Amino acid sequence: MKRETPDDASPAARRGGWLSRRGLLAAPALALAGLPTASAAPVELKLFLLAGQSNMAGADSVLPGSDGLAQIESDRATLFTGTPLSGAASADFKPWGSVRGHKAAKPPYGDRPVIGPEVGFERRLYEAGLRNLALIKVWANYPRTETVWPWGEGGALHTRWMNFADERIAELEAAGYVPKVAGFVWHQGIDDAIHGRFAAEYLSHVKQMVADLRRRFRAEQAPFVLARSVNSPIARSITGHGPNDPMAVVRRLQEAAAKEIPLCGWVDVDDLPNVVQHHFSADSQLIIGRRFGDLYLKLAASGSGASR
After folding, report:
1. Could you tell me the pTM of the whole model?
2. Contact at 8 Å (CB) between 141 and 157?
3. Residue 7 contacts by C-beta under 8 Å, 6 or more apart in sequence?
């Protein structure tokens, strides 16, 4: 896959290594046992980049038991990798393998796996006839002390995200695959409401991020689907409950993003019950993922945005 990289990127960053020029992440041991080698003929993969904060991670979306997801055909056929970004290389890093749940460290749950929207998403696409799917998922939160939106180009989380994506893509290519970015899935915004100042800038930040991602991965027609964030009680307790306070502003600007960004749409999650403040159960995550999938298919087929 051809990708544009900044002119001042270090050789390690251009290779997509975990150790960026800022030294943000240490290099993990690469475990590729779960990545099958492509057949003799090149296999083109439809690659999706998923990113966001705790509801993308699957926080509190705990699967029953300790064996992970009860897989169906689409789960076994889809390639998946993921990692948290808010620190050094994590024990929660999941190398390439099938979709079966992953760790998202939280003391009450120990090693019990969780899921985010990736499961319902790939299942819906598979039902629609899409094959050769691969998903790269990252998640992180950021503190109120940030002065630059960290998900944007040049921000700390963006840098880690792109390094991780580049390295995982290089692994696919080394195994004989031809990955092409087909879409983006985004579940993030509560941090911006908690931060306060970033709330009013949410639309401009996301518009620029989408443009940068599409340019970087040469995926100008790749749909971008996002969730309108939960009306978080945590954010509202910190920065206000009113209709013009940050949480309400972020939610309105998420809807606006779907109207102003080409090939973009938003999904509603307000009807789903929350667990532990503003998180979701595993069952609700399956529904959210399917909604992302429905919206993606609609945008990909119609070439239009501003959908729900």
Report:
1. 0.87
2. no
3. none
